[in-house]
Amino acid sequence: MNLLFQLAVFAFIGFSFLLLISVPVVFAYPGGWTETKLKTPLFSGLGLWFLLVLIIGILNSFVV
Q: CATH number for the domain including 41?
């Protein structure tokens, strides 16, 4: 269970870094937020980020 928790935290950190880079890039596109076609991947990424937060919260209750 410890290994699964550590892998989830590592994925969370890596994905957070990916979003840290990609969100400003999406907003910097010409035409801004309204005309970009990157909304769907960005919202999917945010959903996955929240899912990782929930998974880490659940796994945290099993780690001693």
A: 1.10.287.740
